[in-house]
Amino acid sequence: MRDRYDVVVVGGGPAGSATAMLLAQRGISVLVLERDAFPRYHIGESLTGTAGDFIRANGLVDDMARLDFPVKPGVKVVGKGAKNTFYVPVLRATWQVRRAEFDDLLLQRARGQGAEFVHGSADAVLREGDRVVGVQITSATGEQATVACSILVDASGQSVFLSREGVAGPRRIAAFNRQIALYTQFTGVLADEGEQYNATVIFYRDTYHWAWLIPLSSTLTSIGIVLPTSSYKLRGGTAKAAYAW
Fold first, then answer.
1. What is the per-residue pLDDT for 175?
2. Domains in the chain, ordered, with CATH?
3. Of 125, 157, 88, 175, which Cα lies nearest the Cα of 8?
4. Taken in order 43, 34, 10, 18, is the CA torsion positive or negative?
């Protein structure tokens, strides 16, 4: 790790790794800082068409096939009581992914393009007046350092690093932020045949109450439910009670 980079990216998930990859391709020095050890489990497994465009543009299609990531044809929405069911095909081919492997794929590709990586956390921004000029970090082994940069990118997701540091605006809590997701993975799940094979299935019940079914490989399926935190607490505050709903 050097003392200075053109860009430091906080967060090594898809947004951070994609940013680092594109910058490194252009000869820009970039450091990626990620607090979690990869590979690590994460949800957000059904990619958009825009993500598919990025995968194709950066030569990752063969990797997607090698990792047995299903091609996603679209999204099927099943209404309450199986009413008002409809299907939306994707306009551009994309994939369903196991995030532990997909995120690691992107991070390793960014490193292969020349981005540097540190397993550690961002502790505080460095300032000169009103300008952010770097970041203070702690590595996974406990070593502390300061790194200067021209641009600091916050790709920390819900950790909202720059917001917590008072650089970005305050985090706004909307209704969809007050939800809880309960999820797991199953084998042997039956799937639709034909053009909807490997599609994401969304089961809608009430406002902010829904569930997903996402095929992750030829044998593995992600299933989860989402409901407001208030509803979760009313149902006993346990996963078993919520699934019974």
1. 59
2. 4-44+102-164 (3.50.50.60), 70-91+174-244 (3.30.9.100)
3. 125
4. negative
